[in-house]
Every structure is written in structure tokens, then in C-alpha cells.
From TrEMBL:
Gene3D superfamilies for this protein: 5'-nuclease
One matching Pfam family: PIN
PANTHER family assigned: RIBONUCLEASE VAPC16-RELATED (PTHR36173), RIBONUCLEASE VAPC22 (PTHR36173:SF1)
Domain of life: Bacteria
Organism: Candidatus Methylomirabilis limnetica
Signal sequence, start to end: none
Entry protein name: PIN domain nuclease
């Protein structure tokens, strides 16, 4: 895994991993749960995950009460994380991500992992074998 720093790792969670960690922790593999709970590791969240959580709530695929914005703000006040700022370099890198599909969220999450030297934690089959970024599979 990339992002190693004196025995520490820096993890970016894909949106589903973030939601599972908060709402359905039993869906996380033991390896992922241990890595995310280890205080020596640094956890990062992209604004793209915030956007995706709101979209999922609007589509009825996840319930965030009392409303998505309030739920997200409350969660972000209670968990320790770094924000993977969506900057110009991330935007530039998103277009060099070699994916066979054009999902902008996946492109921005991978680009953020590359720009900030993070390990992307995911269960998305389409990303598990991606070679242009460090991946920790939820398996």
C-alpha cells in the first residue's frame, strides 16, 4: 500500500465504505475495520463522498435522518478525519485516471488518492484491480 509513513497509513474511504463504517460496520472486513479503527492511521474524506451520500439519500438508497445535510454535518463533527480538498490538481488528475467508464465520482476519488498519496479503501469490484492507486479491498 502506498501512503506508508513510519508505520502509519493514510486512508481515503470510498462513499460506501464511509457509510458502512457509520451505519453498517458488520459489512466491513476484519482487515478494513482494524485499519480504520487504528488510531495510528489517518482517515481522509473527499467532498465527493459528501455529494454522493446526498445523492444516495435523494434516491432513497440510504436514510440519513433527520435530513442528509444535518446528518452529514453531525457525523463530520464527531469523527476525526482530514478533508481531501477538491483542488485543481485533483481535477487535472481525474482525467488521467484510466477507467473503462466515465463515473466522475470514482475518477475524483481515485485522483484524490493519487494527489494526496492515500490508500483507497473500497469494495467496488470495478476499482479493486485498479493499478494506478493504492487499494485496500474490503474482502
Amino acid at each position: 500500500m502506498h501512503g506508508e509513513d513510519c508505520g502509519r497509513y493514510h486512508f481515503a474511504r470510498t462513499t460506501h465504505i464511509l457509510l458502512w463504517a457509520l451505519l453498517e460496520p458488520a459489512r466491513l472486513s476484519k482487515r478494513v475495520a482494524t485499519a480504520l479503527q487504528d488510531p495510528a492511521n489517518e482517515l481522509w474524506v473527499s467532498p465527493i463522498s459528501t455529494w454522493e451520500m446526498i445523492l444516495l439519500a435523494e434516491k432513497g438508497r440510504v436514510i440519513l435522518e433527520p435530513d442528509p445535510a444535518t446528518w452529514i454535518r453531525k457525523v463530520y463533527r464527531t469523527i476525526a478525519f482530514q478533508e481531501a480538498v477538491l483542488n485543481h490538481e485533483v481535477a487535472i488528475q481525474s482525467r488521467s485516471v484510466d477507467l473503462p467508464y466515465q463515473d466522475p465520482a470514482d475518477r475524483f476519488l481515485i485522483a484524490s488518492a493519487r494527489v494526496y498519496d492515500l490508500t483507497l479503501v473500497t469494495a467496488d469490484d470495478r476499482l479493486l484491480h485498479f493499478k494506478q492507486a493504492s487499494i485496500l479491498p474490503n474482502r
